Amino acid sequence: MSSQILLSGGDKYYSYSGIVFGDVSAPATINLITIDNTGLKDSYVFIEPYYGVPVSTANASAPGIEVKIDDVTVIKNQANRQNNDMSHNTFRIFVSRQSKLEVISLNTAANNTQERGCNVIGYYL
């Protein structure tokens, strides 16, 4: 799980989870990114989840994504089947200063071992 990294110019930050996967005992959610404090300015944030090859293509087996700001869910997206390609979803949100930002992977029993990850870049306003 990655935290916030400021770019050298001080006007942007980024975070990336790397490839994450579980095993059959993986919980229903896996934290991908947690930024405890987004900084002293409001930001416009791009969240880009990505997914590996599906383990199962059955109905209700696709992984999903949940985004929380200060423990409030602001995005929750989960396709009803793996064939609904979610790999091109980019979410754009405004995040107020000094907020906690979390990106969480949503699992089903059929996809715990599927690779997934997330990249985040925030532009200070």
Average pLDDT for all residues: 85
Poorly predicted regions are none
Structural category is mainly beta
Q: Domains counted in the coordinates: how many?
A: 1
Helix content: under 10%
User: Number of DSSP helices?
Assistant: 0
Give the strand order of the largest sheet, numbering strands 1, 2, ... along the chain: 1-2-9-4-7
Q: Report the principal-axis shape.
A: elongated
Query: What does the radius of gyration come to?
Result: 15 Å
Largest sheet: 5 strands, antiparallel
- SSE ordering: EEEEEEEEE
For the termini, the CA-CA separation is 26 Å
- The percentage of residues in β strands lies in 35-45%
Give a count of the beta strands, DSSP E runs of length 2 or more: 9
Could you explain how this protein is built, in words?
The protein is mostly beta strands and 125 residues long. It is 0% helix and 45% strand. The protein is built from no helices and nine strands. The strands form two sheets. It has a five-stranded antiparallel β-sheet with strand order 1-2-9-4-7, with no helix packed on it. The mean pLDDT is 85.
Question: What's this, in brief?
Answer:
By secondary structure, the chain is mainly beta. The chain contains no helices and 9 strands.
Topology:
Elements: E1 5-6, E2 12-16, E3 29-35, E4 43-51, E5 64-69, E6 72-78, E7 91-95, E8 101-106, E9 116-124
Antiparallel strand pairs: 1-2, 2-9, 3-8, 4-7, 4-9, 5-6, 5-8
